[in-house]
């Protein structure tokens, strides 16, 4: 019984600590990935740039309006970039420009999302 109480307290403590983090960023990596799924061939196999890719990039940019959302999207992009060993780094970095979307950082495997992704008011 004492172990169950300790477990409940641990879960409650995690919810208290993680709650503010989860509510600050509404974007999930699933949302980011879903919007950029059409870009995979372009970024990893040097295929043509599909219209659906740029639609996803534009949608993602429109969804990420706050600093926490942009930082979360950035972290998801960095994680995704690191999961593709055949990622063409130049194409990834140039993807926003190719889709005529302006973001304040280059997509790469080493982007510091906390440093470069801040919205000035």
From TrEMBL:
InterPro entries in UniProt: Bifun_inhib/LTP/seed_sf (IPR036312), Bifunc_inhib/LTP/seed_store (IPR016140), Plant_nsLTP (IPR000528)
Listed CDD domains: nsLTP1 (cd01960)
Bilayer-crossing regions: none
Sorted UniProt keywords: Lipid-binding, Signal, Transport
Coiled coil: none
Bifunctional inhibitor/plant lipid transfer protein/seed storage helical domain mapped to chain residues: 29-113
Record's signal peptide: 1-18
Function: Plant non-specific lipid-transfer proteins transfer phospholipids as well as galactolipids across membranes. May play a role in wax or cutin deposition in the cell walls of expanding epidermal cells and certain secretory tissues.
Name of this protein: Non-specific lipid-transfer protein
Origin species: Brassica cretica
Upper taxonomic lineage: Eukaryota, Viridiplantae, Streptophyta, Embryophyta, Tracheophyta
């Amino acid at each position: 019984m004492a172990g169950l109480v300790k477990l409940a307290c641990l879960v409650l403590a995690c919810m208290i600590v993680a709650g503010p983090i989860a509510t600050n960023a509404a974007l999930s990596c699933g949302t980011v990935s879903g919007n950029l799924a059409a870009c995979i061939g372009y970024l990893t196999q040097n295929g043509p740039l599909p219209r659906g890719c740029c639609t996803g990039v534009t949608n993602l940019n429109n969804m990420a309006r706050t600093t926490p959302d942009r930082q979360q999207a950035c972290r998801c992009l960095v994680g995704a970039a690191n999961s593709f060993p055949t990622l063409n780094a130049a194409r990834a970095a140039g993807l926003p420009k190719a889709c005529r979307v302006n973001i304040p950082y280059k997509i790469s495997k080493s982007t510091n999302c906390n440093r470069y992704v801040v919205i000035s008011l």
